[in-house]
Write the structure tokens for this entry.
Amino acid sequence: MSKKDNLLFVGFMGCGKTTIARAYAKKYDKIFLDTDSLIKEKFNLKIDEIFKTYGEKKFRKEEKKLVSFLTCVQDCSIASGGGFIEQKKLKDIGAIIYLKASFDYLLQRLNKEELATRPLLTNINNAKILFNQRAKKYEKKADIIINIENKSIKELIKEIKKEVK
């Protein structure tokens, strides 16, 4: 594992980054952080409200600030937003774990309320294009790739622990 013992969970919207990162932190006594939650807390707004009020560009600037912060933390299990993969220097944070699934599988996992809170999923065709672009980046930057389809949280945590050295 990385010198900082951090795990950075990446993947497309709806793949379970927050759920898995939190469960991993709890089981292995790590600090849990969520990049989207940190940004939401700063603005006291939901992600879709931040996008509407300030725009995606501002949101990405906030993510960039978080990369600098996260390179300084240790022993964390970190859930990132779906677009966090666009940031540079992610390897400086820790081991990158890509939670992989097909686009259709991810869509099936999300209910209407969850879809409504994700501004980049309002247009399914555009979301599919975005998914295809990001999937390549997730694979390229990942240290570990875990297929999440049809697996329980417990199974996924066990699989991740086996891969993390």
Q: What stands out?
A: The chain has eight helices and five strands.
